[in-house]
Amino acid sequence: DAKTTQPPSMDCAEGRAANLPCNHSTISGNEYVYWYRQIHSQGPQYIIHGLKNNETNEMASLIITEDRKSSTLILPHATLRDTAVYYCIVRVAPDSGNTPLVFGKGTRLSVIA
Amino acid sequence: DAGITQSPRHKVTETGTPVTLRCHQTENHRYMYWYRQDPGHGLRLIHYSYGVKDTDKGEVSDGYSVSRSKTEDFLLTLESATSSQTSVYFCATGDRDRYLFYEQYFGPGTRLTVT
After folding, report:
1. Can you tell me whether residue A105 is helix, strand or coil?
2. CB contacts < 8 Å between A and B, how many?
């Protein structure tokens, strides 16, 4: 799987949008971008994934650049409960089987009241 | 979230003793995984299974063995625990959903301390 680069930490004011960047310049055409988060001491939780189109669900939005070399996870109205480590993961297409996830060090997001 | 339980949730053991961690799922997922998490390393894959009796090694498999005799249980064994195996261990499961998408669901973790 391609490697990803994320900033080690970010702060965000409560109620504001949190924009978490991820670089994946070596991504292949059949690789998806996935985002997971891990709240302190808990197991990681799936947030969203995408291939090349922007995606939105009840938790977040994912913006992928046209060249697919970077992406941004957006939490539209961050709350204190969004404080967590966020992992950007690049992974082969779903029909290739449930391949293991390769975690980097992620971005530690601190939401401040 | 998938029904995933891990047991025990906490364990302290001595160097050289055998230890078995259990992961149990109620979702009938084909795939199961064991990860470990250490400060400064993030989560690293130990072993995974793609079906009953079908397992494969991950990034950090030395010193660990696994077994999967039925769909719902995936056991991780440390034959002779060492202090370097002090870690938090996470189990995960996954399968294809109705959107043909594979997601992984994680258990609550087991904190293992080897003294």
Report:
1. coil
2. 56
CA A97 to chain centre: 21
Mutate to test the interface with A, among B87, B98, B106, B110 (most CBs of A within 10 A): B106
- Are the beta carbons of A102 and A44 closer than 8 angstroms? no
pLDDT digits (tens, 9 = 90+) for B16-62: 999 999 999 999 999 999 999 998 778 999 999 989 999 999 999 99
The model's pLDDT over A45-74, given as tens digits with 9 standing for 90+, comes to 999 999 998 999 999 999 999 999 999 999
Q: What is the dihedral of CA B42, B47, B48, B54, to 10 degrees?
A: 170
Extract the runs of DSSP E, i.e. beta strands, from chain B.
4-7, 10-13, 19-25, 31-38, 42-51, 54-57, 64-70, 73-78, 87-96, 102-106, 110-114
Can you tell me which residue has the tokens 């009840």?
A58
Task: Say how far apart CA A75 and CA A85 lie, in whole Å.
Answer: 13
Chain B neighbors of A42, CB-CB under 8 A = 106, 108-109
Taking an 8 Å cut-off on Cβ atoms, the answer to whether B104 and A104 are in contact is: no
Chain B residues with beta carbon closer than 8 angstroms to that of A99: 102
Query: Structure tokens of A65?
Result: 């650049």
The structure tokens 């195996």 sit at B85
pLDDT of residue A109: 98
Going by C-alpha positions, the residue among B8, B5, B2, B3 that lies closest to residue B111 is B8
Which residues of chain B are within 8 Å of residue A101 when distances are taken between CB atoms?
43, 45, 92, 104
